[in-house]
């Protein structure tokens, strides 16, 4: 059981936050902002399938659920392969603490993963020396690479 609620950061132990949320969800006195914090922690770990299940099983009935809806927009963008940054910016600008912090942390994580993907793509593209593209294509065609 976590002694500090809501957790000030996702970076310390997001798995423990998820465990705490799941335990609290079943109690008679759920913790404040439980569902949005649960969603944020799941998305921070890239657990988009679990985030989708959380979204589907929650009825929208309270002001807290409006926060959850904003976080689900982040998850939905991630699932669809779209940029989640606009939805994260909304969470960062309009949500109470610590959800603002969580949004910033997930934005930083998303930006760093995008940067590493771009580096990987550039690395793969830079393997062929300049001026050799036609020779490589001709070789690949002899091997029927596009058949």
Which labels suit this protein?
single chain; mainly alpha; 7 helices
> First CA to last CA: what distance?
58 Å
Cα Rg:
21 Å
Instruction: Please report the number of helical segments.
Output: 7
Q: What form results from the Cα inertia axes?
A: elongated
SS strand fraction: under 5%
Mean pLDDT: 83
Q: Name the helicity range.
A: 55-70%
Q: What's the count of strands?
A: 0
How would a textbook summarize the main sheet? Answer: none
Low-pLDDT residue spans? 120-125
Structural class of the secondary structure composition? mainly alpha
Walk me through this protein's architecture:
- This protein has 147 residues and is mainly alpha-helical.
- Helices cover 66% and strands 0% of the residues.
- It has helices at residues 14-25, 34-44, 48-57, 63-79, 85-94, 99-125, 133-142.
- Helix 3 (48-57) packs antiparallel against helix 4 (63-79), helix 4 (63-79) packs antiparallel against helix 5 and helix 5 packs antiparallel against helix 6 (99-125).
- The radius of gyration is 21 Å and the shape is elongated.
- The N and C termini lie far apart (58 Å).
- 25% of the residues are buried.
Helix and strand arrangement:
Elements lengths: L13 H12 L8 H11 L3 H10 L5 H17 L5 H10 L4 H27 L7 H10 L5
Helix pairs in contact: 1-2, 2-3, 2-4, 2-6, 3-4, 4-5, 5-6
